[in-house]
Amino acid sequence: MHADSHNSEETSEFLLAALEQAIDAVVIIDGDNNITHFNAAAERLWGYPRHEVLRRNVSCLVPVHIQAHHNGYIEANRATGIDRIVGTSREVKITRKDGSEIWGALSMSRVAIDDEIIYMGFVRDVSVEVRQREALALHALVASRTTRMVLVTDRERRIAYANDAFFRMFGYSASESIGQLPSELLAGRYTDQATLERLRRQIELGNDVEEEILAYTKSGNEVWISAAISAVSDGQGELKNLVMLLTDITEGKLLQSLQRHVLEALALETPIRDVFDMLCRRVEIIAPDVVSSVLQVDADGLIHPLAGPNLPAGYCQALDGIAIGPDVGSCGAAAALGFPVLAQDIATDPRWQLYKDVPLAAGLQACWSSPIKAKDGRVIGTFAFYFREPRAPNRWHQKIVDACVHLGALAIEREESRSQIARLAYHDMLTGLPNRAHLRQLTEQAIQDCPVDEHIALIFIDLDHFKDVNDTLGHSVGDELLVGVSQRLLGQTRPGDVLSRLGGDEFILMLSNCDAEGATTIARRITDVLAIPMRLGGRTVPVSASMGISVYPDNATDIDSLMKHADAAMYKAKQAGRSTHRVFSIDMNVAAEQRLVHVTALRSAVAQGHLKLHYQPQIRTDGGALYGVEALARWHDPVLGEVLPSKFIPLAEECGLIEQIGVWSMREACRQIALWRNAGLDVPCVSVNLSPLNFHNANLAAVVAGVIRENCLPPETLMLEITEGVILDENSAAVRTMDAIRKLGVGLSLDDFGTGYSSLSRLAQLPIRELKIDRSFMNNIEVDAGARAITTAVVRVGQSLKMSVVAEGVETEGQRSLLAELGCDVVQGFLYAPALAPADFERWLIQHCAAQAYTLLREVGRALSAAQLPEKTLARVSAGKPSQ
């Protein structure tokens, strides 16, 4: 007996020790419902230390609202033995010592020992699980209520969850969907396997993807969906789930397809009636409840049916030629009023009273018509939906109509433009004159029809200095000039003559039955009529032209040769001083060939680096110090010899090399400055001329920055000279380029200021650091009050805008002295030196610096003499010797 008692005690101790180590909370109550055991897990769960609860009634551990009844529940169980809670697990709310509430999973055991019934409760904290379950329930509720389709797949990519929107769209039930692969469940005849494979690869990489996919419903209907797919990984980085949000984009795809077919038909020049017939048929496929039609409205406001493939025979013809008006059915009213008109019941709608019998007889009971408008707002047609029952359109109908009205406008305007397109193919868009192609046709026909004893003359007309107008006043003013010139030239034509614009500033006048003498007379008249200045852009602009004349059959018998000879004669006129004309002679072919030789040689010189830079010094007027140099391009050709800049620079502009020469000049000038500085020669600044074309290059600032960086030069070392055309250019890219160059610290100099059409307000807004007075004002500045006044004005402008002013072409001391008196900062010209090769400039600079030093010493000597110093000291100073 003693042994049994001992074993029982050992067993009890073992069980209590085991319960103490349990991860679940364990609470034991005796027959009086008092707590006899409260393990460590229970302390953690309730937050009570065990000494505060042992031997207390168990009701202290239950929520307040059931404490009063708790003992009764237990006693009832003891008395009846009905175990509704014993042997089961349920979730209960637990109130902790600090008042917070958690969820616990409670299971109870009921044990009878020595006629005493005790209870043992096991509780596990399930708060996290409860919260997760509630969150999942909330998410499921949201997913079930959203209009977007939601799919969640498991590790095997099979559907684990789908919301109601998915079931409604695709027609599958939950049992038919769960456990299926989406790629198989939604596949059909035209499923794009390549797209699905691309998606699989991205998903395997753990990437979120979005794609438009063609899917199929249970009944086999095509559905376009936009799929946004996100991968969910577990704690080990393995792909656990895919969450897919699917959006129905079928309507948008159908409209895209409709638009694509119509645009393709227009691109193929399909006749307009066929285009609209196809449009109506496709609309009726995607909206089977409508009958569609298209009407065109002409300039007189009359209706002309274009399409209505399913309207009754004769119905469209009955509408042809009817005038639009507010009471002319839905279509006539929409065209007249300019907004959509809906007749929900044709039988009773007042707008249809005069026309209702025909549609009603065909079973059409409602009509909704929308105007088709051109870009300028004109109503050029209507697009209508007829319905077979009284009703209004729905949202899908509205989307279709919006697309079709736009497509209809494109198609009708294209039809209206066909004649205009045909005209533009043979006429210049700006002036309306025949273009080169039309001139060729007309001239070839004229040559073919020309009697043996008659002549045909061509006058090639090229405007003088037109590029300057474009560069300084802008292209809009240039266009205005071309239109004005074309009107004046037309005034000099005779019946049978043809005036054509070839492009740019070039015109050709074909004179029928006209020899060289007659063409010369007309050319003189053209010179006279063009000599009258034009008022353009608020300014009076002089106009002139150089003209070349060739005659059939004297100079050539085909159009190409006639134009070539007239072109050669025109260049001779330009060489003769412009604003004149020349008749072609055989020796002009030689001149044209020489020009071609020069162009070819120049291209070779640029490509092979045969151009050189010479440097002309710029001198400060207040003391004679070196201000900087201007880099000027020089070309010596092995065959042609020395080619003057006045010849090869215009040639470079004509043949498209000027931009390349500008960049080369900048690179070479900066390289030379760096060499001089490394050799100890102080050249403060170098000016480089750039073409307006350079400033249209968005990469210019980056190129400039690279050149400065490569040569380790401070940015203020470089000054870029620009023409007035650049600052007047309305191209915002040129302005941005100038601003970017200013931000680099590189200077901008406005060349030949005062000779063009610079706007002072525009000048003040731009990052210009220097103004250059054109050399043309220097010739007579000492005697010509006008030249002196302009120079003074330029200096004052520079001073007011805090810009340096440089005068070019200074050749006499009198000019320099006057400029200094006017306040001009810097002069350059033959007074000091011409443009010099680098080695010659180095020698000049050394001599100039020595002369500057000698002058300075002489001035110091005179100052000391005035101070009455000893004669020996004065002698040393005057001789440039230091005192002992």
From TrEMBL:
Taxonomy, superkingdom: Bacteria
Domain GGDEF residue range list: 454-586
PROSITE patterns xrefs: EAL, GGDEF, PAC, PAS
Annotated PAC domain residues: 207-261
Segments traversing the membrane: none
Any GO MF annotation of the entry: catalytic activity
Domain PAS intervals: 11-57, 150-180
Domain called EAL: residue spans: 595-849
InterPro entries named among the record's database cross-references: Biofilm_reg_signaling, Diguanyl_cyclase/Pdiesterase, EAL_dom, EAL_sf, GAF, GAF-like_dom_sf, GGDEF_dom, Nucleotide_cyclase
PANTHER family assigned to the protein according to its UniProt record, in alphabetical order: BIOFILM ARCHITECTURE MAINTENANCE PROTEIN MBAA (PTHR44757:SF2), DIGUANYLATE CYCLASE DGCP (PTHR44757)
UniProt name for this protein: Diguanylate cyclase/phosphodiesterase with PAS/PAC sensor(S)
